[in-house]
Specification:
This protein has about 210 residues and is of the alpha+beta class. The protein has seven helices and eight strands, in the order ββααααβββαβαββα. The protein has an eight-stranded mixed β-sheet with strand order 1-2-3-4-5-6-8-7, with helices on both faces.
């Protein structure tokens, strides 16, 4: 049976970050940065107010695939501090012909992330997304990870390239933005064997 996020040991620690499953209590901390226009302009959904956001965040289906990104407190062995972002790991079935569909169940994941602008520019996002890939490939044993963004969201697709993801698709005017404009979209992916072949791929820090 495929592993789930609930089967893994948490928190997962990197050099500077602690990553763990989100809980209902994290709605307020994530609203602090997700309400900002600089973040919300690229997100799939931009709730009108905090109450609406809390209802959406606390939906069990959303919580099951949401991880919190926190700074590790200085001088501790792994205690987590300030919430600076969140991430999504949505395990999915791969496409397959009907005769082999059972072998494609739960073999891949789509990932996504949002980071507080106050903590951008120092490599936290790269560190966190690199660890998401390790969680997907080593922790969950998946074969493929995908991510997508608007082409205008240059920091996002440049991050995907920094962590080794391949651009697989550039779609012209295929994505309707809430501004009313049809924008270009981009899709990236990485296979487990590609990730393992990259230099410097190593397990997370010990907790």
């Amino acid at each position: 049976m495929p592993r789930t996020l609930g089967d893994l040991d948490w928190p997962v620690l990197t050099a500077r970050l602690a990553i763990r499953p989100a809980t209902e209590a994290d709605a307020e901390a994530t609203w602090r940065y997700r309400r900002l226009e600089a973040v919300g302009r690229w997100l799939t959904s931009a709730p009108a107010d905090q109450q609406e956001y809390q209802r959406s965040f606390r939906d069990p289906a959303r919580l099951a695939k949401t991880l919190l990104i926190q700074l590790r407190d200085a001088g501790t062995a792994g205690a987590a501090g300030l919430v600076i972002g969140d991430a999504m790991v949505a395990v999915e079935d791969g496409w397959a012909q009907s005769e082999v569909a059972d072998r494609a169940r739960g073999v891949q994941a789509e990932i996504g992330w949002a980071l507080d602008p106050a903590h951008q520019g120092v490599g936290y996002a790269t560190e966190a997304v690199g660890e998401l890939l390790r969680i997907c490939f080593d922790g969950l044993g998946l074969r493929r990870v995908t991510a997508g963004c608007f082409a205008d969201n240059e920091p996002s697709w440049r991050l995907m390239e920094r962590v080794g993801m391949r651009r697989e698709e550039y779609s012209v005017a295929d994505s309707l933005h809430r501004s009313g404009a049809w924008l270009d979209g981009m899709a990236y992916a990485l296979l487990a064997e590609e990730w393992r072949a990259r230099p410097g791929t190593s397990p997370a820090a010990e907790g």
